[in-house]
Every structure is written in C-alpha cells, then in structure tokens.
Amino acid sequence: MSLVGEKIDAWCLKCKLELAHVVLYERSGQAARVKCQTCGAEHMYRGLKPQKKPGVVAFNLSRLNRPKSTLQNAQTVREAETRWVLKNHELKPDRPIRAYDMKERYTRGDVINHPQFGLGFVERIVTDNRIDILFRNGLRTLGMNYVRFPQPPL
Ligand SMILES: [Zn+2]
C-alpha cells in the first residue's frame, strides 16, 4: 500500500514544530518527501523533532541550578536595600556627604556619593586600601587611599 497522500507527523524546518504533513513521495515503503499542512513547505522527510545535542542538555541542567543562586542574590540585594533605606532615613540633613574618590581616605560611618552607584555608607574598613560601602543596590568593595604613580619629571 502506498504512503503517498497519507498524513504523517514530521518535523517542519520552517515552523520549527512537529506538524501534520502529507506524504508526496515514498521510497522503499518510507516517506521520502512531505508537505507541511501548516505552512505549505515541501521538504524531505526527516522524521520527528531532532534529538537534542549533549551540549543543549548540559545547558538546560545549568539553567536548573540558576534560580536558587538568583534567589539568594536577590535576597541579599533586598536586605542591603532595606539597610540602605534605613540609613538614608536616619541621615541628618547637615551630615556632610563626601564625593567618592579612590585617592581619598575614608572611615567607618562616612557618607559618600559615588558617580555611578549614588549615595553610599562606609560600613567596613577592609584594608588600608579597601572599604565596603553599602549602596542602594548592594554592598560593594571599593578602593581608597589609592597612591598615584609619581608624576613624571618635566
Ligand atoms: Zn511548516
């Protein structure tokens, strides 16, 4: 019995879906050429959806692990923002706000203004050259007391 004219599910390269196709030609009792009933494209019969390559599977697995860490990060950012809002609320109007400059030296409790991250509160002196600053979008470690290279002689 001929397959020609029979309906068959096949992978449509145009629709990128498994769709009903009509067999146009057959070869050795197998569908050889089919026509997509959705888009009308005629193409060789390639069976159903192509098997996923191992790389694709690995990518999906790594995606499965992502929401957990994303959630933790979001939570950390939220906690930082809550602390920031509280500190901002308690900030007295006459409190000096220093412009952030990595060549300057800061102490714990200093309020700074960073050109990119905005208002920040110095929370911790990490080393003589590093400080933790609480910004609205999270805690950041920035440089301070940065010593410039000596000016070249004129
Ligand atoms: Zn199609």
Q: Structurally, how many domains make up the residues?
A: 2
Number of helices: 1
Bound molecules: zinc ion
State Rg. Answer: 32 Å
Shape: elongated
Extract low-pLDDT stretches: none
Main sheet: strands, sense, barrel: 5 strands, mixed
- The strand order across the widest sheet is 5-6-7-8-9
Report on this structure:
By secondary structure, this protein is of the alpha+beta class. It has 2 domains: 38 residues; 89 residues, no CATH class. 24% of the residues lie in helices and 36% in strands. Strands 5-6-7-8-9 form a 5-stranded mixed sheet. Strands 1-2-3-4 form a 4-stranded antiparallel sheet, with no helix packed on it. A hairpin with a 2-residue loop joins strand 2 and strand 3. The N and C termini lie far apart (96 Å). The model has no long low-confidence stretch (mean pLDDT 85). The site of zinc ion (ZN) has 8 residues, from loops.
Describe the structure concisely.
The protein is of the alpha+beta class and 154 residues long. It has one helix and nine strands.
